[in-house]
Amino acid sequence: MKILRRNLSLMLAVRYLNPLRTVFSIITLICTFGVALGVMVLIVVLSVMEGLQKEVDERILTFIPHVQVSLWDAQQSVPISNKQVDRFEIEKQLAAIPGVTCAYSQIDGQASINLGNNLQTVTFTSVDPTNAAQMQPLNEMIVEGNADLGEGLDPLCIMSAPVARQLGIRVGDTITMTPLAGGIEEAGRIYSLIQEPLAMQEDKEFRDAIAGFFDGAEPDGDGLRVSPEKIEHMTGILCRLTDDRLRPGERELRDRFFELTAGHPAGAPYTSDDRKNWDDAVAATDALDRDREDGKAAKSINEMVMPTDLEVIALYQFPENLAGPGLYVPLTIAQDALGYSENGEDKIQTFSLRLSDPNRPEEVADAVGRILPDLSASTEEYPMGLDWLVTPWSDRFEQWHKLIANERVMMSFVLSIISLIAGFCIMAVMFTVSMQRKREIAVLQAIGATPGKIVGIFAWQGVIIGLLGAAMGVGLALLVLHNRLEIQAFLAAVNLDPFPMQPHGIRLPAVFDFGMFGWQAFKAFVMVIVASTIPAIFVSRQDPSKALRSN
After folding, report:
1. 106, β-bridge pairs
2. Phi and psi (nearest 5°) for 7?
3. What 8-state DSSP symbol labels residue 374?
4. Distance between CA atoms of 315 and 451, rounded to whole angstroms?
5. CB contact at 8 A, 311 and 156
6. Nearest to 147 by CA among 1, 312, 376
7. How many Å apart are CA 190 and CA 193, to the nearest integer?
8. Res. 17 pLDDT band, cuts 50 70 90
9. Which residues contact 96 (CB under 8 A, 6 or more apart)?
10. 110: left (phi over 0), alpha (psi -120 to 50) or beta
11. Contact between 174 and 310 (Cβ < 8 Å)
């Protein structure tokens, strides 16, 4: 009471909030609970959305590589071969990077699987059964059977439970897996290819470019110096002639032209031997026979990878809201299926890394790039050289991450608009109160109350309502979040579930971020003060004499 007597604005603010000397006035209660409900709804929804984002990220990070390292030529991804690098040595170096918990080789692909008359196309992923860090996430998802793949040398597999249900497959059944890459897909590509004329003979721009390559070249000693622009133009035309457009003989000639353009030392003149090699390649292009080239292409079908019989030893259940491979197979079996182990070769598709802190993969990705060997030099097989591509998981699953983040932003925006509407309602109440107190305020002005004192009365009302409403809102939010599963079950029982999680296989998540709680409460507090102060500014500017004479 002493504090109230010393502060006229605060004393009158308390009096106006409780004009009938009851515990609380109905208007004060409505304003306070309006703020509390707004804060509560904002906190609850944002906590659940943040929990959902965290849950999805954790589920993704449980089974996927956190960083993948692949090898690319100028056009497409190429297998990593033991002829290019020492795979096992690179794995050791990658595993030694700070923050990397394990590194392993991986192969992904598509295959058709069948059991009797049932046929379905699925994706498959390789696993190294001797790598415990890679097998642990898979073991946690097993719902039937035993995920013991032994040393990875036997034709065994682990199948997705939904795929098994569709095909009627049980643990112990034997399925036939036919990779699409190098199998059905490749046969279709070759069939489509031989329906078309020879690309090198039909492409007029290519024909003109190889015929006039040395036109306008400047003499340089015993050679000719071709302009860098012409070499670059020729290289661009060759890059356009991708493997899927060329028959085997055409691919060999394209690579010869590549070696004489992109592989030629920069700025060096073309010697007589270089020009002879070029003329021989042009003559070989002219001599290409379509029937002979079609025969070579068709013959390669006989060299395609044959189907592989696999025993299903376990079923795993993938998170319902994410797409996973239909099959997990040992690395050696995947290599055999795709022909990656023929002729003494040891090929893989990617090096995969798991991190101790998967939320910061970019730092490890930079370190990975520094230890990988340089393969940019031109070779007979890859005239343009090869480049490493280091891909963090956040890039591969960027759309998932952005989807939840955008939902949080939009939900926060929508609920903030609702809170803003509540603020306007409070402002309307304050305008009404200020109009009702117009004569009393005029008396205060007549006895010397300054505009600041008048504004202070309503500002203090906003402070009191804002503090009480924000505190109550945080308390109610904590209560709702703590009992969210029970509340959800009750709402679901009456068909009013606002967060149906069953289709996603997730229990209603929430993150207790007290920094976010405080920020939402502070925003509501400031909004109420602003809503209370604006009417007071108008009233404080009134003419006391006119206000006292008005009815």
Report:
1. 350
2. -125, 100
3. P
4. 76
5. yes
6. 312
7. 5
8. low
9. none
10. beta
11. yes
Element (DSSP H or E) covering residue 365: helix 361-371
Residues 29-39: b if buried by 16+ CB within 10 A, e if exposed: eebbbbbbbbb
| Tens-digit pLDDT profile for residues 438-488 | 666 666 666 666 666 777 777 777 777 778 888 888 888 889 888 887 877
Question: Is the CB of residue 434 less than 8 Å from the CB of residue 535?
Answer: yes
- Residue 104 neighbours by CB distance under 10 Å: 23
Q: What's the full length of the chain, in residues? A: 551
pLDDT at 543: 62
Which pair of tokens denotes residue 50? 């943040």
Mean pLDDT of 326-347: 83
Provide, rounded to the nearest whole percent, the portion of the chain with pLDDT above 90: 3
Contact yes or no for 426/531 (Cβ under 8 A):
yes
Residue 120 makes CB contacts below 8 A (sequence gap 6+) with 112, 113, 114, 163, 166, 167, 326
Q: Which two tokens stand for residue 160?
A: 């997705």
Give buried/exposed letters for 507-545 (b at 16+ CB in 10 A, else e). ebbbbeeeebbeebbebbbebbbebbbbbbeebbebebe
Contacts for 271 with CB less than 8 Å, ≥ 6 apart: 222, 223
